[in-house]
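Q: Structure tokens for this one, please.
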Amino acid sequence: MSATISLAGKIALVTGGGRGIGRAITEALAEAGATVVIASRKLDKLEAAAAEMSHLKGKVVPMACHVGRKEDLHRVVRDTETTLGPIDILVNNSATNIGQGPALDTTDEMLLKMVEVNVLAAFRLVNLVVPGMIARKTGGSIINIASISGLKPQPGGLLYSFTKAGLLMMTRSWAREFGPAGVRVNAICPGLIQTDFSEYYWKDQSRSKELAGDQPLPHLGQPREIGHAALYLASDEASFVTGHTMVIDGGATA
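A: Here is the predicted structure, written as tokens:
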């Protein structure tokens, strides 16, 4: 797919784009020619990741940003548009999962933090980026990285499932409202993907076998598989796709 899709001249913003699924998405978009801003808290790690991706056709630009802080989101959008140009592709990928455990052990503080990072950041970035997309009348693509935990409850993961389900409903609502202006909004729901973020579930072989063993494709997913899906949704090849939830889980939800 990456050999035929061109994103030359496009500007993308990927939160959490320096590692895991976010990095795989960044690599796919940049290899297709896009200029990709990667944003997360630790600038040194972003700079190292950008250096490692310097061989790609497009350009990878690191920018420090705490997605839970409104002022940081305003700054990264402003700096991107000032130095590189209007944002054509927004990938809301950053997430946290601090509320693992029994539902009755979760706290107000856990809930607020989970909403801040997993839902409110995407809400704020869409509000910052989409008005420009609409005004330019050139379309645009929003891709929200959710989870199959937003489709079925994750054991011990009340808050993660709740926030990812909320992101899916926001995706559908945004798609209905922005579609007439040519702005597409879609979501990807990964299953168990082999990243640092999910290592609790796959690093222990017995736990990994238990989770993946019932899948029709009984192996761990790889970040590049999510990257390829995001590339499709970002491109004009998906010009008739909006409001869609793309499930990539080895058949786990089947």
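A few notes: The mean pLDDT is 93. The longest helix spans residues 108-136.
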